[in-house]
Each structure stands twice: as structure tokens, then as C-alpha cells.
TrEMBL record, chains A, B:
UniProt organism field: Canna indica
Alphabetic keyword roster: Isoprene biosynthesis, Magnesium, Metal-binding, Transferase
Protein name: Geranylgeranyl diphosphate synthase
UniProt feature coiled coil, ranges: none
Keyword Glycosyltransferase: no
InterPro entries: Isoprenoid_synthase_dom_sf, Polyprenyl_synt, Polyprenyl_synt_CS, Prenyl_diphosphate_synthase
Keyword Transferase listed: yes
Source organism phylogeny: Eukaryota, Viridiplantae, Streptophyta, Embryophyta, Tracheophyta
Length: 379, 379
């Protein structure tokens, strides 16, 4: 399993701002000579993630002076119609999802899969996938099988996370959750089937353009990336850590919270972007920059989710609100306070943008606006 | 999704003997001129499976005269040390499984995955995979990632099937089932993680020989085959149909029972053999013959399982015995009686052998003996 992060990672931080500065397998001179004492707050996001990926004990945090220069924000055409773009892509994705799960025999399981998969939602992950493919120079048709696959994975994780033995949630996307609308057994199996179907769809050569613009090598790489993001190094790790933390009865610290969120949320956004980039023909360097962009917006997504949970109603969210507050679950607002959480979100947003510098300014517009959307969404 | 069976399938039957005779997309003259009226019993296994695969309504069963000639039984060296072969392969598979799931963080989920995955078992599926690769002319190292993957899928299906909301089984492989040894949430997640890891392992190029003897094309095809066998066309379809049938309170007919078994059991044996053949470099024709062999032994496996459930004790089986009898679950012994069930098993065994004729007589020894083992096992 390749990792983008080496065992030595230098991060600079202002408040909770993350700078993925120098990622190498050995300390660099610049980094080791830096004096970190003046830094008040440290962010261990990248370090913890890297250590986990490499199955190493948490490495020592080595810091360098923070960059005082404002992060390079790419010039994006202000005229970009983000709403129209999202709508257009969501329609295309919904159509592909609908076609990918026809109402076959046995009917009940296909109904359950379709119930959860076609329940709406903003299709953030598939759109990220399509947008990353575009940034890499690929066409939409190259990334659509992957876009469908990541949404299937997202849906299956929601179905299983909502189960009574897990988060026990009755409401999802404004409707009864899958095990409420059907039954527990069907929900478990619908999740399993969607998980398998995601890989089936991603590896189905008939779903790709006939011109061979996506090679079997790229598909194999995409399958590996998707598998890693679901398993015990990804979504499952996040859910396990979350359940363990909830059961502890004591608040977790920021490092543990970041582990949960990086795995429970960020990995799938990361996989969506990276797989889109792979099938779009991105270079390794481009893939790694897009991976870091995605990791930032992944963490951002969860920080914002935590904020919304305490600031919005169930009706506004379309799911049970205030649940984190009622439970003993640690969230960013509980850990940092609401204001600091918002600052952290802002810093992550800026960092995500800086990773996009160097790409085509026009083509990155959807990714820039998607990050903004994740940051400023109201549900 | 490619299917080995066209919409027109001609089967001949004597008693419950299945003959996969002519598999084509159009009726052949020989078939359409045949007079089926003299046949007392019909077997719809292939027809139902094909219709389901192609998402068609059940096709008309068109029959041809039964073959009166005995099936060609390949000459197998009587000296073949099957016990030694199984032991040697199981040791290699166990070692690969152990290495594939190291005890990483978060510990509990990896413990649960290892608990179920390394609980012993006969490793029939991985051995089938390795043996099919050998028959196709490949080396063991080419098939080991696939062998590991199919055992992961098998284990995940057992973990989820044992859940309280499914078959609610406390005992598995002679030990508490996963949700009993750990908890329900961990069992759901361990299953999910193993499912994802199976695809991760199968698509991990570093797991294959460095000489490129397994190409990305072969891996993509293998991933597709594995995905199909798990999802709503495979294991999940079988489990759903099984749960529905159990809930009916009325016995299902033989057609429904065959649907359940072909999907709940046969598909994974089929995938094991087919994927082994793919990575071993088999031709399409060879793959399809091995697929039919596997489908026969898959159904055989379940018929024998049903027989063992009523003839053996829990201690002898290492799992709860007599469960099918106590429940309203339809089984072959209930449907056909014990004697007819045994005859059916015998016919399936013979048919499986006939599919192996034409392959290297020495190399098929493990597959011939594996079929015998499945037929004559005592637990």
C-alpha cells in the first residue's frame, strides 16, 4: 500500500492552520534547523494519518517556522456557475446510478439498494471524482464508473453506520434509514451488495469508453485505492475508533478525533478525488497534490458537520440534529469551542486551495467551489 | 457482466442428473427436435441460473433426450495423495492469510478479522482456486492473492450470515461466532473490512510474481468475477432468497431451493475456480468448463450440507446441527427424502467429473478429489 506521506512530516501551524510542508522519508536541513518553540498550537493531522498508514507508532512532530505569506489562492473565474455545474453533474450521476442498479430479482434487496442509493443527496463524492478527472485532462465518461462506485461505497457506509448495533439512526437524507424502511437483515445485505457492486462497476470494462482511454492498469490502481479507503485502514477504522470513543464515556483528545474524522470521512473524499485523477490520466505528482487537497476538505467536511449538528435543527439537516451534543461523543465544538472550530475550518479551506495551485485555473473551478461549498453549506 | 449461459439452455435429466448440454444463444436443431415427454423429472438448475444472470423472466425449459452413455470419467492417478495435498495447500494459504491481515490499529477490528479468518476450516475455496490455476498451467504464486481473497469473502459471508438479524448462529467452526466473541457492531465492520480487503489484495500488484505473469487485464477480470459472486446477483441474492423462504412458513419448491443454493454456496466456489483459471492463463473455453465443474460441486456442497445437518450432531459438525430440521427451512432431504438427495449428490459429482475431461489427467487430480471430498465429507 503506497502512502503519500513519509515517516517524517513537517507541519507548520498558525492557530489550527495545517501546512503540509515537506513530505520526505528523511528530515530536510531546513526543517531540522527550524525553531518551533514560538508556535502555540500544533496540528497533528498529517502526522497521525501518515503514522497510521505506515503502521508506525505516532512519529515525533517536527515543526518549521510558519509561512507568513498568504497561501496562493488560484485565480478562478468568478463567473463560474457552481449551482448549475452541481445540478448538471448530479443529474448525470443519478442517471448512471439508476442504470447501475436495475430492479432485478430478488426484488426486495434491489429495492433496498435503490431506496438508499437514489435517495437524493448532493453527490459530493461523485462530483469530486468527475471534477478531478477533468482537472487531470480526462473526459467525464472516463470517470463515471468510478463516480458511481464511490457513491455506492458512501451509501453502503451510511446504511451500515445507521444500524441499531452501530449509530442507531432512524433518519437519513430526510427519510427513514434503510433498516427502518426495510429490516435489519436487508440493510446489512444491501450494504454488502452495494460494496461488492462498487468494485464490480469499477472493474467492468464495458462501462468505460471503447477507445481504451482508461487502461486496465489504471483500473487496477483505482480498485486498490477504493479497497483501501473502505477497509480496516479507512472507513471501517474510523467507525471502529468512533464507536470505541463513544463508549469510553470520557472525551477523546484532538489527535483521536482527527484519526476518527480522517478515516470516517476524509478517506472516501480522498479516494473519490484520487480515483478520478487516476482514470483521468493524472501524473503521480498531480495525484498526490489532489490527494492532499481532498484530505483537507475531508477533515473540513467533518468539522463543518460537527458545527452544523449543534447549530441546526433536524428539519434543516434532514437527519437527527443535536445527537452529538446529547451523547458523550466528542466533537470539534466540544473540544475547541464553536469559534475555534470555525477558524480551523477556515484554515483547512485555505490549505485545500493552495494544493490546487499549478493546475489549470479554469479546470480547478469546480474543486475550489466544492471546497467552499463543503465549508459554507448549511446542511 | 458476461454470463456463461445463453438464454437457450438444453438440459437432459435422468432422476436429478444435470446435463449442461448445449449452451448457445439460439436453439439448435438437435435440441428443438428432441422429444422431452418421456422424462419424468426435470432439473432446472442451469436454466434458472441463466435467466437470473441475464435478468430475464424464467425461460421455457427445452429438453433433449438424455445421454445414455456413462459420463467420461477422467483417468486419475490413484496414487494421488489428496490428504497431503490439502494439508500442504492449507498451510500455504493460512500463512498467506496471516500475512494479509496483520494486527494493526485499531486493534479490535483486526483481532475480529483474524479471529474469524484464521479459525481453521478446510480452505476448500482457496485450494480450488490454486488447483484451477495449476490446471490452467499457472504457478501457485499467480493464484495465491486470489486464494486469499476468496477465503476473505467466504469468512465475511459467514460473519454476516451468523448475525442475530440473519441466521442468528452462535457457533461457527467450533467456536463462538464473531458477534458472540466480540459484538455485533464489530462483526458487521469486520465483515465489511474483509470484503474490501479481498478486493484490495486481489488488485495489489505487489502480491503477484514480479515477472508479469499475471497481467492487469487478468486482474480486472478477476475483480469483476469476485464482485459478481458477492453481490445481489450472488451470495447476497442467495441469502435474501433464503431469509425470504424461511420467513414464508411454507416449503419452497425445488426451483427456489436451487436458486438459493446456487447463489448462497455455488457462486463462491465457482468464482474461486474461475478466478484461479483466469490468473493461471486459461482460455475462455477452459474457463467455462471449469465454471460448470464448479457450479456442480457448488450445488453438491449444499446438498451434502443439508444431508449432514440431519445425519450428524453439533459436535461432529462443529456448528449447530439439526437447525434446518427444527426450523421451517426447506432442505433437499425434506424435499426429496434422504435417499433421493444422496442420488442427486451422486449425479452432480459425476457431472462435475465429466467437465474435467479434456484437461491434463495428472493436473486435474486435485479437482477430482476435491469433488469427491465435498461429496463424501463427514462434516
Amino acid at each position: 500500500m503506497a502512502s503519500s506521506l513519509g515517516p517524517y512530516i513537517y507541519c507548520t501551524s498558525v492557530g489550527h492552520r495545517v501546512h503540509f510542508a515537506s513530505l520526505s522519508s528523511r528530515p530536510t536541513t531546513a526543517a531540522t534547523t527550524a525553531a518551533p518553540r514560538s508556535l502555540a498550537t500544533k496540528t497533528r493531522v498529517a502526522i497521525v494519518a501518515a503514522a497510521h498508514r505506515l503502521r508506525l507508532p505516532p512519529p515525533k512532530v517536527m515543526e518549521v517556522e510558519p509561512s507568513l505569506a498568504p497561501s496562493a489562492e488560484p485565480a478562478v473565474a468568478a463567473a463560474f456557475d457552481f449551482k448549475g455545474y452541481m445540478l448538471e453533474k448530479a443529474v448525470a450521476v443519478n442517471s448512471a446510478l439508476d442504470a447501475a442498479v436495475p430492479l432485478a430479482h430478488p426484488k426486495r434487496i434491489h429495492e433496498a439498494m435503490r431506496y438508499s442509493l437514489l435517495a437524493g443527496g448532493k453527490r459530493v463524492r461523485p462530483v469530486l471524482c468527475l471534477a478531478a478527472c477533468d482537472v487531470a485532462g480526462g473526459r467525464e465518461s472516463q470517470a463515471m464508473p468510478a463516480a458511481v462506485a464511490v457513491e455506492m461505497i458512501h451509501t453502503m457506509s451510511l446504511i451500515h453506520d445507521d444500524l441499531p448495533c452501530m449509530d442507531d439512526d432512524d433518519l437519513r437524507r430526510g427519510r427513514p434509514s434503510c433498516h427502518r424502511a426495510f429490516d435489519e437483515a436487508t440493510a446489512v445485505l444491501a450494504g454488502d451488495a452495494l460494496l461488492a457492486l462498487a468494485f464490480g462497476h469499477l472493474s467492468d470494462l464495458t462501462c468505460y469508453p471503447a477507445d481504451g482511454s482508461v487502461s486496465p492498469d489504471q483500473i487496477v490502481r483505482a480498485v486498490g485505492e477504493l479497497a483501501r479507503c473502505v477497509g480496516a485502514e479507512g472507513l471501517v477504522a474510523g467507525q471502529v475508533a468512533d464507536l470505541e470513543a463513544t463508549g469510553l464515556g470520557t472525551p477523546v483528545n484532538q489527535e483521536q478525533l482527527e484519526f476518527i474524522h480522517l478515516h470516517k470521512t476524509a478517506v472516501l473524499l480522498e479516494a473519490s478525488v484520487v480515483i478520478g485523477a487516476i482514470v483521468g490520466g493524472a501524473s503521480d505528482d498531480q495525484i498526490e497534490r489532489l490527494r492532499k487537497y481532498a484530505r483537507c476538505i475531508g477533515l473540513l467536511f467533518q468539522v463543518v458537520d460537527d458545527i452544523l449538528d449543534v447549530t441546526k435543527s433536524s428539519e434543516e439537516l434532514g437527519k437527527t440534529a443535536g445527537k452529538d451534543l446529547a451523547s458523550d461523543k466528542t466533537t470539534y465544538p466540544k473540544l475547541l469551542g464553536l469559534e475555534k472550530s470555525r477558524e480551523f475550518a477556515e484554515e483547512l479551506l485555505k490549505e485545500s486551495r493552495s494544493q490546487l495551485s499549478g493546475f489549470d485555473a479554469i479546470k480547478i473551478a469546480p474543486l475550489v467551489h466544492l471546497a467552499d461549498y463543503i465549508a459554507y453549506r448549511q446542511k
